[in-house]
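Final report, closing paragraph on structural work. Over the funding period we assembled a curated collection of sequence-structure pairs, and we close with a single example.
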Amino acid sequence: MINGLIEVIVYVRDMDKQVRFYRDVLGLAVRSPADLHDYSNEYWVELETGACTVALHGGGSGKHDADTPKIVFAVTDIHAARGVLIGRGVAASEVRSPAPGIKVVDAADAEGNPFSLEAHEPTGH
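Its predicted structure, as stored:
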């Protein structure tokens, strides 16, 4: 029945600020609409993340709590990726290991939406 995850929607209040965060801070490419100087008047912006699209949806209320869904981005080098985030002004947690072979860093976007970076250590197979 399910053929994979194709899209994660993040509701945002300030579209231009959020596009700049995901594009300029996290380095995601804007799929649509591409090459705009100002995204303030956009209600839907798609960002490329590989097999799954992150879609920014205007009209968000900014209400976050402990059960707010979280986007998790795959990285190869968790320590280097954390350093890049911090260098770009993002408060990032210390690296933690919730399970053997998995390293995670937690952070939040420009409006406080939580996200994580996750690296998987190669298995010895």
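Helices lie at 15-25, 78-87. The chain has a mean pLDDT of 92. We thank the funder for supporting this effort.
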